[in-house]
Amino acid sequence: MYNKAIILPYIYKLMDTKDYIKIFEQSSALLLVIDTNFAIVAASDAFLKSTSIVRGSIVGRNIFDVFPDNPADEIANGKSKVIDSFNLVLKNKVPDTMPVVKYDIPKPVSEGSGFEVRYWQVTHTPLLDEQQNVKYIIQQSEDVTENKILITQLKYEQRALKQLADSEKRYNMMLMKSPFGFAVLKGKNMVITLANDSVKAFWGKGKDVEGKPLFDVLFELKDSAFPGLLDNVYTTGVSFFGNELLASVLRNGKQEDVYFNFVYQPYLEADETISGVTIIAYEVTKMVLANKKIAESEVHFRQLADLMPAKISHADATGNVFYFNKNWLDYSGYNFEELRDFGYHKIIHPDELDEFQKRLQKAGETGTVLEMEMRFMNKEGDYRWHLNLASPIKDENGEMKMWVGSTTDIHEQKEAKSNAETAMIAKQLFLSNMSHEIRTPINAVIGFTNVILKTALSEKQKEYVNAIKVSGDALIVLINDILDLAKVDAGKMTFEQSPFSLSTSIATTLHLFEPKIQEKNLELIEKYDAAIPEVLLGDSVRLRQIVLNLLGNAVKFTHEGKITVSVRLLKEAADFVTLEFSITDTGIGIPENKLEHIFGDFEQATNETSRIHGGTGLGLSIVKQFVELQGGTLFINSKLGEGSTFGFVLDFKKAISSSTETSSITSNVHDEALAERIENIKVLVAEDMPLNQLLIKIILNDFGFEVDIAGNGKIAIENLEENKYDIILMDLQMPEMNGFEATAHIRGKMNMQIPIIALTADVTTVDLEKCKAIGMNDYISKPVDEKLLYNKIITYLKEGTN
User: Fold this and answer.
1) What is the model's pLDDT at position 238?
2) What is the radius of gyration, based on Cα positions, of the chain?
3) By the 8 A CB rule, do 108 and 128 touch?
4) What is the distance between the terminal CA atoms of the chain, rounded to a whole angstrom?
5) How far apart are CA 778 and CA 726, in angstroms?
6) Which long-range contacts (CB under 8 A, 24 or more apart) does 631-637 make?
7) pLDDT tens digit string along 262-301?
8) Which of 105, 172, 313, 464 maximizes the CB count within 10 A of its CB?
9) pLDDT of residue 170
10) φ, ψ for residue 760 (rounded to 5)?
11) pLDDT for res 510
C-alpha cells in the first residue's frame, strides 16, 4: 500500500508538468485528455495511430471542432449522451452509461482515399486537483464497430420481418391502383391470373377477366402480331420493349385509338422455369398526340422557313445546328447532311469566330438575342457579309432548350457603306488639298491688300484695293461654307464650350454690317434682353457664323426699310439659359411653297435669286446644321413682298468665370502690360512660300516683333538649335520636313515646350485634331487675320510670364 499523504501531492504537482503529459501520450490505450473548456490537452500515440490524425492538428482545439458531435446512439431529451456524459464528469460524477459515437476515420494510403466509418464506445473519467475540483477529463475509447454493425443489421432484419407480413397485402393494393397496366398471363394459352384496374380499363372488357385466356378477352387481336410477340417471350425468355404501340380499345362505349409503351417479360417460378408472361403497359396517348402536333407545327414552320429570304437555322442548347432552311443550303452549296457534318462554325470567317462564340455564350446566360454582323463562307470559299440573329429558347424551368437563328445577306449594303466611307475619306482629302491650294494664294492676295491699305493711296486706288479685299473676303466665306458642310457630312463637326460675352459677340457681328447697312440707307434696330447673363459657355465662333449668315441674308434681300436683331431670355435655370435669336427684315420675302426647301444644300428661294442677288445657297444650310447639331430649333415666318423673320432657340450653360473670350477678333490689338516686352519678342516662322514669307514678316514687323524665316521644318530646327525664340509660327505643308514632323521633333527629341501656333491653309477637322495630338498649342487659318494672330501670340506670351 502507498501512503496517500505522500503520493497525492506528487501527482498534483506532476499534473502541471510535461512529464505528466508524456505519460498519457505513451499509453497503449486510446486516450484523450480534455480540459474543462473541452480543449484537447493530450492524445495517446495509440489514439493517433488508430485515427490517422497528426498530434499538432488537434492539441489545443475544442473536441467538438475536431470531432463534431455526431452520436451514433439516440438523442435523449434533445441532448446527446456524449454531452450528458461530459456534464456529469464536470460535476465530479461518473456516468452510468457509456455513449457510442461515430467518427469518419481517414483510410490509409494503401487502401485508397476517402473515409471509413468507425463506432467507438467512450468512457469519461474526471481527474481532480488538490481542491478536489475537476481539472481534466480522461476520455478512453474502445472500437465497437463490428458489434454496432451487427446490432444495426439485426434491428433492420427485425424491422424487415415485422413489415414483411404486411408487405404483400400493401404491394397487391398498390399494384391494383397503379396507373401502370399490369397483368400476369400463365401457360401456353396465356390465361389471365392477375390484372390490375388500369389494364382492365385499357382493354375495356369489364372487370371479370381473371381465369380467361387473353385472346378470348381481346379476341380482336387474335390475328395481329400481338400473340406472336407474347409467345416469343414465353418460349425464349427474351423480354420485349415496345414504344408508342397503337391499339384500338373500347372506352366509355366508344372505340378509340390509344398508344402504349409496353414491356413483356417472362414470368419465372422459384426454380427459374418460365410459366407465363408479365405485361406492363403505360398509356402515352396524350404525349404522342402532343408530339405529333409539335412535329406537324415543325413541318409547317420549315415549309414557311423555306420560303423566307433569310437563312433560318435551329441549334441545340450547345450550339450544334440540326436544321438549315432552303436558303441556307442554296447559299452554302452543301446538302443538309454535308453542312451539318461540316460544322456551322467552320463556315464563319476566322476573324469573327471568337467574338461570335463569346457573344453567343453571353446571350445564352442573359437570355438576350445575339445580333452581330459577320461573314459566312459558301462551298466555293467565297465570304459574304450577313446580319446574324440568334434567339435563345428556354423551357418552363428556364433551362436552355434550343437556338433559333436568322441570317440575312447584307453584303451589298456593307460594301456600299464601305464604298461610301472610302468616298467620304477621298472627299475629305480632296477638300483638304483644295482648301490648302486655294487659301495659300488667297492669303497672299488679302494679306498684301491689307498691307497696301496701310500705305498712302489716292481715293481711286483705295476704291480699287477695297474692291479686291471685298472679293477676297467673299471668296473666303464661300470656302468656309463648303468646308463646314463637308465636316458636318463626315460627322466631324464639334462645338466648343468656352466662356464668352454674348453681348460683345452680337455687337461685333452687327458692327461688321454697318457700312453695308449705311450704304443701302437701312435702319438697324438691336433689341438685347438685359436679363441675359453677361458670360455664357458655348461656341462663340459658330454662333457668330449663324448670325452672320442670317444677318447677311437680311441685308442682301432688303432694299428699304429696317432690320431688327432681337435676343431675348426665354428661360433661366440654375445652370443654363434658353435664348431666342431672331432677325426680322422688310425685304422681298419668300414664297410659301419654297419655305420648306430653303434650308437644303445649294437651295435658294427662286431661280432668279442667284442671278439677281448672288450667293450659293449654302448659308441657310449651314445655319440649320449648326443649330440642330447643338440641340436647338429653327423657325421662319415670311410673306412675299413684305419681309421675313428667321430665328432659332438655343440653350447655353452659365459660366462660373466672368472672363470673356480672348480670341475674339474685336479684342484690343495692344496690351499695355506687355508694351515693354513686345519690343524684345523674337518669332520663328516656318513657311515655304516666298509671298507668304514676305507677308507674315511685314505683319509681324508691324507688331514690333523680330522675325526669322525658315523655308521648311528642318531649317526651323537648325535655327532653334542656334538661337532663342519666344514663339514659333509653323506652316503645316512644307517640303523636306513638314510642320507635323518638325513639331514632333521639337517636342520629342529636343524636349522644348516653346509655344507653337500652326499656320494652316487647311482647316478641316482632320488637320486640327492632328495639330493638337502632335503637340501644337493653337492654330490660325490662312488668310491670316492680323488682329486674331496678334491676340493669340499675346495670349501665349502672357502664359509664359505667369
Assistant:
1) 87
2) 51
3) no
4) 106
5) 15
6) 634/599, 636/590, 636/595, 636/598
7) 788 888 887 888 999 988 877 777 777 766 665 666 666 6
8) 313
9) 61
10) -125, 135
11) 85
H/E element, 128? strand 115-128
Burial profile 255-269: b = 16 or more Cβ within 10 angstroms, e = fewer: eeebbbbbebbbbee
Tell me the C-alpha distance between 324 and 344, whole Å. 10
> Cell 432548350 appears where?
401
Please give the model's pTM, rounded to 2 decimal places: 0.38
Q: Give the distance from CA 108 to its chain's centroid.
A: 52
The owner of cell 440653350 is: 651
> Quick count: other Cβ atoms within 10 Å of Cβ 52?
13
Nearest C-alpha neighbor of 583 from the set 625, 542, 632, 634: 634
Beta bridge partners of 527: 566
Residue 379 carries which DSSP code? T
Residues 8, 12, 15, 19, CA torsion sign: negative
Cβ-proximal residues to 527 (8 Å cutoff; 6+ apart), any chain:
564, 565, 566, 567, 568
Q: What is the pLDDT of residues 494-521, one digit of tens each?
A: 777 888 889 988 887 888 788 888 888 9
Instruction: Reduce the secondary structure of 9-29 to three states and give it as a string.
Output: HHHHHHCCCHHHHHHHHCCCC
The set of cell numbers assigned to 556 is 442682301
* DSSP code string of 716-770: HHHHHHHS--SEEEEESS-SSS-HHHHHHHHHHTS-----EEEEES---HHHHHH
Grid cell, residue 755, equals 509655344
668 secondary structure, DSSP code: -
Largest alpha-carbon pair distance within the chain? 151
Burial of 385 (0-12, 13-18, 19+ CB in 10 A): buried
What's the one-letter identity of residue 658?
A: S
Q: Is the pLDDT of residue 6 over 50?
A: no
pLDDT tier at 632, thresholds 50, 70, 90 = very high
